[in-house]
Amino acid sequence: MILGKTVLWISILTFTTYGLVGFFFPQIPADFGSLGMLNGDGIAEIAATYGGLQIGIGLFCLIAALNADFYRSGLALLAIAVGFLGLARFYTFIVIPDPVTGYTYGAIIYELAIAAAAVIALKK
User: Fold this and answer.
1) Is residue 101 over pLDDT 90?
2) Which domain holds residue 78?
3) Tally of domains in the chain
4) Average pLDDT value for residue range 34-58
5) Of 105, 110, 111, 113, which one has the greatest count of Cβ atoms within 10 A?
6) Distance separating alpha carbons of residues 29 and 73, to the nearest angstrom
7) Is the confidence at residue 50, as pLDDT, over 90?
């Protein structure tokens, strides 16, 4: 239970904080990911994905950390959703010829580590 709670609380902090940055300052995550925001649709997309979605994941992890009825669901969300974020990022890193920055390396490490820890916590 300690590992699971730790994974949830780390996720609360990282997803909610990064989500708030993305929500109010979408240019920051766009710059991290080398993404162009060509018009209002682009700004809305970055704010929604890097802001709203991330805040939602962080708040669901908060519910899961505080309410035992949602504990396993919160870990399952991290294992599946964050795991596939990491797998997609890692796969792309392997197959594309273009270089990536520390942002991608850090995201791969974080996402796969959180997902793996969530899977281990779910098995206990």
Assistant:
1) yes
2) 2-123
3) 1
4) 97
5) 111
6) 27
7) yes
Alpha helices, DSSP H, located in 25-82: 27-32, 40-46, 54-66, 71-77
49 vs 53: CA distance, rounded Å: 5
Q: What CA–CA distances, in Å, run from 60 to 64, 86, 95, 121?
A: 6, 19, 33, 17
Q: How many residues does the chain have?
A: 124
Which residue matches tokens 């649709």?
41
Query: Token digits for 78?
Result: 């991290």
What six digits make up the tokens of 51?
Answer: 């802001």
Q: Which of 26, 31, 40, 4 is nearest to 101 (CA)?
A: 31
Alpha carbon dihedral 9, 35, 31, 92, in 10-degree steps, equals 60
